[in-house]
Amino acid sequence: MKTIWTCAAFLLLSFSFYAQNCSHTLTGKVIDFHTGDPLIYAIIKIANKDIQVYSDFEGNFSIENLCEEKIELKITHPSCQDLIYPVLIEGDTYKKIKLEHHLEQLGEVSITGQAVLEKVKTGQEQKIDIETLERYSSASLGDALKEVSGVSTLSTGNNVVKPMIQGLHSSRVLIMNQGVRMADQEWGAEHAPNIDLNSAGNITVVKGASALQYGGDAIGGAVIVEPERIPVKDTLYGKTILSGATNGRGGAVTTSLTKSFENAFYGKIQGTFKKFGDYKAPDYVLSNTGNEEKDFSIGFGRNTFSSGFDVFYSYYNTEIGILRSSHIGNVNDLIRAINSREPSEVNDFTYQINPPKQEVEHHLARLKYYKRLEGLGKWNIQYDYQLNNRLEYDLRTGEDKGKPSVDLELQTHTLSTNFKFDAQNEYSWNVGLNGSYQMNYPNPLTGVRRLIPDYEQFSAGAFALGEYKLSSDWLVEAGLRYDYTHLDAQKYYLKSRWNERNYNTDFSNIITAEVGNQYLANPVFDFHNLSATVGVRHSFDSFQLSANYALANRAPNPSELFADGLHHSAAVIELGNLRFKAETSQKIGLDFRKDLGDFRFGIAPFCNRIGNFLLIKPTGVETTIRGAFPVWEYEQVDARMFGVDIDWKYQISKQFAYRGSFAYVNGRDIKNEEDLIQMPPVNFSNTIRFQHEKWHQLQLNLTGDYVARQHQYPDHNFKYDVLENGSYVSTLVDVSTPPKDYFLLGFEASATFNPFEKGSMQVGLHFNNLLNTSYRDYLNRLRYYADNLGRNAMLQVKLEY
């Protein structure tokens, strides 16, 4: 009986195989999603089967002898995103398959071998790749940006570092992080960007206001931090970077893990921890300069060529010690600090961070969706939320000991959308809208007069950008943007200050209450700003010439309008002015490049005329209950700036290469006929590289950086009566004279090994200030009190898996 049933089953199975029809044919056509043009030599492969065909000159393909079943096709084509396409075979079947063939949609415009997307076509733009960013894993965003010519740093010690683009910084430099415009109290010169450098896949620096889609007020430029692209395939990968440094006796660890799928879903998690103690100048410890940073980010979404979404969250937390000897009690202390060759307080090394210090916490959440429409282009919509809490601690005693002197909480909601019409190869348009709501709350429980008041700010903007290819050699780019800003503040003014600035003449109607010796005022401002850009690019042989004009307007920030009191972390009194108008910048920039061959170079001159330019400068001394302090007052002038950035590379041989850069900026207050304050000095950088791929990808770099003395500066020195031996002596307080020039030597070595079955290990050794040179930087706000960092040796191990 058993044998009968076995034979019956065998016969039934044989019959089913025989009955299955495997004579069907799948035909189709592969075309461009936007234009409908056929795509030649696309590879069409059936998943899990050894069947593969190619599309012909008309985009057509054919696969024969298919059974009635559901199959998955994998279609690939150069410059296209791979596509997984399910097909149900029911008789002879025909399918029209559309691929995203526009390079710009995928961010894969090839520049010097890197897959990156141009943000502007005719403006001045440079990029930093992932390999360079990894070298700065334990450093800050500002430190890494110094790799770009024309980018300097305005710093407060060694941990608070802000990027300065062609002489402009803070509110004039827009920072985009993961598609979100950062709102992290950027108005402060001693407020560093709250970004974990290790979350970036690449960074683009746009010099000037030509990147209108990000904002019309970026007079200095834009820093665009983007994540690494995640492949559309089934894979799991990650990396960990461990760093240890001798200067600061600390280190950092950062790790990330990414999972992606063939159906285009993905997820990524990343985290960073940094811990350093007191840093050291060549001759002494820089007491209370340690820092600790904890960062975390997570994201997930789906990225197909037709639609997708992305959810992202990041948390940034840092505690930064401020040089103890920079905390001056009055002008007498400032004079002693300037005249002393060493800090007034030098203690033994410690990891402890005491006041004066900063503590900053920043939350960023973003939700983004996009959809591509056939024959039109791509639509994006995004909502993001940011919460920034900044604490600044002063030296306080008694009941106030351990209480912050500044406690600012800033919340920002933003909704933005844009549509890029790019179905045509000859031209494209990008139009968009955005709106944001901001609320700033300075905690009154600090017991200290609030430097920045409560305020609400609503902003709205609209832009239209277009580019047109006149021919294969000529491209024209133009754009227009309108921004509206409404600012509503609640501010207490001392009656003495109110009368001193003669506010009663223009603003008597904004006083809402009288409280003792103070007025409560409700200043409300509306700013209407128009920005525009137009440019042209011409390519010939291996050369490229671009010319761009950009008009930009920037509304005054809250500090420039409302600052009124002692800024404790800077130990100066800062004064804003309610009468300030919006800045207007008109900039012309050229960019001439050679991008092929062994020798490559770029020359980028610029000229920037800024009307109603806002600057802050020392104007005298004011006495408070805590003592006498320098007064730094905001002022509005007409400014002119011009300069040039030069880059060059020479591939000497297969193993040796040379790279250099030069930057010069000249800033002038044409209203008062004097030089602008805090302009970057001339700087010149050179690097010689040796590499040998067969020797474990060995790389050796020798770098020399020269920074000249700044000879173009305004004289804001003042005299102050100092008590000496029972009598007052008029003493010069030199807050203007720049320090001397300096030269720094650096060395890097790295090699890659494969100790594991999968993945790799790269080991690097880095030396900064190899000669242990004593120097002071003109753009370091703590240069009056101490030298910059001495020699630092850092060991870095990168594991990729």
From TrEMBL:
Instruction: Tell me which domain of life the UniProt entry assigns to the organism this sequence originates from.
Output: Bacteria
Q: Where in the cell does this protein reside?
A: Cell outer membrane
Record domain TonB-dependent receptor plug: where: 125-222
Q: How does it sit in the membrane?
A: Multi-pass membrane protein
Q: Which InterPro entries match?
A: Beta-barrel_TonB (IPR000531), Beta-barrel_TonB_sf (IPR036942), CarboxyPept-like_regulatory (IPR008969), Plug_dom (IPR012910), Plug_dom_sf (IPR037066), TonB-dep_rcpt-like (IPR039426)
Q: Which organism is it from?
A: Mesonia ostreae
The record's keywords, sorted A to Z, are: Cell outer membrane, Membrane, Receptor, Signal, TonB box, Transmembrane, Transmembrane beta strand, Transport
The record's listing under PROSITE patterns reads:
TONB_DEPENDENT_REC_3
Keyword Coiled coil belongs to the record: no
State what protein this is by name.
Answer: TonB-dependent receptor
